[in-house]
């Protein structure tokens, strides 16, 4: 199928229920596989750092600062990368709207993998002194820039290739790459904690999962290299209708929409970073803390919860094609609120069974407020500035939500002596996400192609005709 034919088949119809040819369906399956594998590898790298921050880096790179300060600073480096996500989002959005989604995805994949592999070779503070944490922070910044550019391209490749009536499901494929990445990262750390227990894990065991990234990047590169460009962008490029300054147009015409979209993600992301940011892992394994579980036991619990998160993320995408993105979010945030209030009371009992129950309960709401995000974001913004819109909304939401959630949680516990303040913080972020989604109209099935820019420019904000 030629690019122009693929374009007409994929973006011309304006109603849900569009049928696809066998060849186009094959390409859609290839895109689905590429987005799942690529994002899983990207987030494996990203979450591997977050998990290692509390388990490894606080001792090996920041140890001289003392236990309390080292914990907070190590989590600050997790959040630091979020400050550079907007830079990655701005760069990817600008060049993605000008030169295409596919090229950007190749660049972000390579950059993330190179930074992660380099961390695996990084000497500790005991070996090279202050240069060790400085180099670690620099590599984390590269991860942040890559993550900021990755997500927007991956979701648009998935959603813009999808049939109109299955955007939620197809859009959930890059979303499940996130719990898959967490599952892979926690799983590899669990294996190495068993293979190299105790001091051996700190001596060399933690490095193996980072070095494995080099092999995974090669796999991801091969899979992504064979995928066609997004049909929406292909049609824009064919007509020579790319916007010269897409970010300027976005911020000039749609600033409030970007903020509301960011708040929706922040409501999910703050809660999710209790595990993806490594806080629960650190809190429940700290030998000086109230729990004191074995490292391998906690990592296995996080791995299992990542699997349930994956299931509910996929379910959310499928469900949003039936009842709408907005309704799925409302259900999801209500269940997420329940999970937030169960989290620490269950974890603080000190039993492994309740730790599993707490994390699994939390993933129900996390999945149901995440799987539909790709489709929701893609349907919010006009085609010519869509990459910029989804990338920047996502990056801002990540800063507002997950960037410093582990740091805030650690500070609240050290300041108050209990986890109750953390619960109320997470509940407040969940409520903020729910309020934001109530401010949006559902745009399920809206045409995504450049022929419908006027319709896409009508504001989805409740009470607004145009942003």
TrEMBL record:
Membrane-spanning segments: 31-57, 69-92, 104-128, 134-157, 169-192, 204-223, 256-280, 300-319, 328-347, 353-371, 392-412, 424-440
Principal subcellular localisation of the protein: membrane
An example Gene Ontology molecular-function term: transmembrane transporter activity
GO cellular component, one term: plasma membrane
Domain spans labelled Major facilitator superfamily (MFS) profile: 31-445
UniProt keywords, alphabetically: Cell membrane, Membrane, Transmembrane, Transmembrane helix, Transport
Locations listed in the record: Cell membrane
Topology term for the membrane: Multi-pass membrane protein
One Pfam family hit: MFS_1
Domain of life: Bacteria
Start and end residues of each stretch annotated as Disordered: 1-26
Protein name as annotated: Arabinose efflux permease family protein
Organism the protein comes from: Corynebacterium epidermidicanis
Lineage summary: Bacteria, Bacillati, Actinomycetota, Actinomycetes, Mycobacteriales
């Amino acid at each position: 199928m030629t690019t122009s034919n693929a374009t007409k088949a994929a973006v011309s119809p304006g109603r849900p229920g569009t049928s696809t040819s066998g060849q186009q369906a094959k390409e859609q399956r290839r895109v689905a596989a590429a987005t799942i594998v690529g994002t899983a590898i990207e987030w494996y790298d990203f979450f591997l750092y977050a998990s290692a921050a509390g388990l490894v880096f606080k001792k090996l790179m920041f140890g001289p600062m003392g236990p309390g300060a080292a914990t907070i600073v190590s989590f600050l480096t997790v959040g630091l990368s979020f400050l550079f996500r907007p830079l990655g989002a701005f760069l990817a959005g600008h060049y993605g709207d000008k030169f295409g989604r596919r090229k950007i995805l190749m660049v972000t994949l390579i950059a993330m993998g190179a930074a992660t592999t380099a961390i695996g070779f990084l000497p500790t503070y005991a070996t090279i002194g202050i240069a060790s944490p400085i180099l670690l922070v620099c590599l984390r910044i590269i991860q942040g820039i890559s993550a900021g550019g990755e997500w927007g391209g991956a979701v648009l490749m998935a959603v813009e290739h999808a049939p109109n009536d299955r955007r939620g499901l197809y859009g959930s494929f890059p979303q499940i790459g996130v719990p898959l990445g967490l599952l892979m990262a926690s799983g590899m750390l669990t294996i190495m904690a068993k293979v190299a227990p105790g001091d051996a894990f700190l001596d060399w065991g933690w490095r193996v999962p980072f070095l494995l990234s080099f092999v995974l990047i090669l796999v991801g590169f091969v899979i992504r290299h064979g995928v066609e460009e997004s049909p929406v962008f292909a049609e824009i490029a064919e007509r020579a209708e790319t916007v010269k300054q897409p970010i300027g147009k976005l911020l000039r015409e749609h600033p409030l929409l970007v903020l509301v979209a960011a708040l929706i993600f922040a409501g999910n992301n703050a809660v999710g970073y209790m595990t993806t940011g490594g806080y629960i892992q650190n809190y429940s394994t700290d030998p000086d803390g109230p729990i004191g579980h074995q490292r391998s036991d906690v990592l296995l619990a996080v791995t299992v919860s990542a699997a349930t998160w994956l299931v509910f993320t996929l379910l959310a995408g499928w469900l949003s094609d039936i009842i709408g993105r907005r309704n799925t979010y409302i259900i999801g945030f209500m269940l997420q609120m329940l999970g937030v209030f169960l989290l620490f009371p269950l974890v603080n009992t000190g039993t492994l069974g309740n730790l599993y129950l707490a994390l699994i309960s939390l993933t129900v709401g996390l999945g149901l407020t995440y799987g539909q995000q790709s489709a929701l974001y893609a349907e919010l913004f006009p085609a010519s500035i869509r990459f910029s819109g989804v990338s920047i909304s996502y990056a801002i939401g990540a800063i507002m939500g997950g960037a410093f959630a582990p740091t805030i949680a650690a500070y609240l516990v050290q300041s108050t002596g209990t986890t109750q303040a953390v619960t109320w913080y997470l509940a407040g972020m969940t409520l903020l996400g729910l309020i934001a989604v109530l401010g949006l109209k559902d745009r399920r099935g809206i045409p995504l192609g450049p022929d419908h820019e006027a319709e896409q420019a009508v504001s989805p904000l409740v009470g607004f005709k145009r942003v």
